[in-house]
């Protein structure tokens, strides 16, 4: 068998090229620290590593979400802490205002302090998370939750509850809508809270309900039904705006009077003896569900009214008692909201610990699949380099074997 010179060169060149490629590949593995540089190096490990890498990326995104949730919840909890302090200050001022020795002027000073606390509550209710999103607007995070109005405030957000995906199977609720925190102060089991004046002489019973056909006219304001000096006629005044909504009207027991979306009736008490309204009797009509802004505004208005006689002092005492009870209910709402926030923050801490453990496990799995065994790789690199050198030297010697070499 005869081997041509070209065959020798081709065979040697191919072998040397293969050895150089092997040396280069091992050198790249050593420099990168990775055993698998392309999917062709280990298709099964590459496929498995892709799945683990995606899971690790998702776990990292959940960690980012949890940090965002933690920032939001911490901001909300801080704001509600300030709200709690403001409500405690309001309670202290209410108790202080009940001092029977205070003059109208001194009660006016307390009303000014309450106004300052009310302004603080507005600021807290319209707090943001630091990025311009309002905390207590529900889904409408770009809309300020509350705007001031005569007699209280109007809620501009919605009832939505925002959530954030904190783990593959868990969504964490963020701060709730303002209605859950600053509203839901039940002053009566029904739609309206109707109370007789403490100084009433008669025992007539007043009741109010929503007039469905005109319910769009509801204002949420406070009203007062006032009988004349004979107890035979009455007027209805919007106490929030000072407007008379029902002019002097003859009294008929049980006859309904409709105004501003409300059906109002005053009925003689069943005897014996039957008791009609007395001269100068009054009844207040308030929404059965208030917000804290309406409550504090009502207290301020009550403190700004002169209380120089026994009847006025009774009205003031009743207003302060009701206001104090309403503030207690508002405090319960705030403390309940703070408890929910604390629970969410604790859950995030637990999920963070679990996420950190997953991250370590994912990286360990990836290392086992892709990382290089340096001792083995360096040994193989040294072996391949020696083999390449030997092949090169062997080719040099072989290429010189010819008849002409002997002739020389």
Automatic annotation (TrEMBL):
Its domain of life reads: Bacteria
Q: Where is the Flagellin N-terminal domain?
A: 3-140
Q: Which Pfam families match?
A: Flagellin_C (PF00700), Flagellin_N (PF00669)
What name does UniProt use for this protein?
A: Flagellar hook-associated protein FlgL
Signal peptide from the UniProt entry: none
Specify the species.
Undibacterium umbellatum
Q: What does the UniProt entry say about where the protein is found? A: Bacterial flagellum; Secreted
Name the InterPro entries for this protein.
Flagell_FlgL (IPR013384), Flagellin (IPR001492), Flagellin_C (IPR046358), Flagellin_N (IPR001029)
Family under the similarity heading: Belongs to the bacterial flagellin family.
Predominant localisation class: other
What region holds the Flagellin C-terminal domain? 326-406
Keyword annotations from UniProtKB, A to Z: Bacterial flagellum, Cell projection, Cilium, Flagellum
């Amino acid at each position: 068998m005869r081997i041509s010179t070209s065959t020798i060169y081709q065979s040697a060149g191919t072998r040397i090229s293969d050895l150089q490629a092997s040396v280069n590949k091992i050198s790249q593995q050593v420099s990168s620290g990775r055993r698998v540089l392309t999917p062709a190096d280990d298709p099964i490990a590459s496929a498995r590593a892709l799945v683990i890498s995606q899971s690790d990326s998702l776990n990292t995104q959940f960690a980012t979400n949890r940090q965002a949730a933690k920032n939001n919840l911490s901001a909300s909890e801080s704001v509600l802490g300030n709200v709690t302090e403001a409500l405690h200050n309001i309670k202290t001022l209410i108790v202080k205002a009940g001092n029977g020795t205070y003059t109208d002027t001194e009660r006016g000073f307390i009303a000014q302090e309450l106004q300052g606390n009310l302004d603080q509550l507005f600021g807290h209710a319209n707090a943001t998370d630091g990025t311009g999103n309002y905390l207590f607007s529900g889904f409408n995070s770009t809309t300020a939750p509350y705007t001031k109005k005569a007699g209280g405030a109007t809620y501009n957000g919605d009832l939505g509850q925002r959530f954030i995906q904190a783990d593959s199977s868990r969504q964490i609720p963020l701060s709730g809508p303002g209605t859950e925190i600053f509203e839901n102060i039940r002053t009566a089991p029904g739609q309206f809270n109707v109370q007789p004046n403490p100084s009433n002489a008669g025992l007539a019973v007043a009741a109010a309900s929503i007039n469905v056909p005109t319910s769009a006219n509801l204002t949420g304001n406070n009203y007062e039904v006032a009988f004349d000096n004979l107890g035979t006629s009455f007027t209805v005044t919007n106490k929030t705006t000072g407007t008379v909504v029902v002019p002097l009207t003859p009294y008929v027991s049980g006859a309904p009077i409709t105004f501003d979306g409300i059906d109002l009736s005053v009925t003689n008490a069943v005897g014996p003896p039957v008791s009609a309204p007395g001269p100068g009797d009054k009844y207040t009509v308030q929404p059965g569900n208030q917000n804290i802004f309406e409550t504090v505004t009502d207290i301020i208005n009550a403190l700004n009214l002169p209380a120089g006689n026994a009847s006025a002092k009774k009205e003031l005492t009743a207003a302060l008692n009701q206001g104090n009870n309403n503030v207690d209910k508002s405090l319960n709402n705030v403390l309940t909201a703070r408890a929910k926030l604390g629970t969410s923050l604790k859950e995030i801490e637990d999920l963070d610990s679990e996420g950190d453990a997953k991250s370590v496990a994912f990286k360990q799995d990836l290392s086992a699949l892709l990382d290089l065994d340096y001792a083995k790789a360096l040994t193989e690199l040294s072996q391949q380099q020696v083999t390449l050198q030997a092949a090169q030297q062997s080719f040099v010697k072989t290429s010189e074997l010819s008849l002409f070499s002997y002739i020389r």
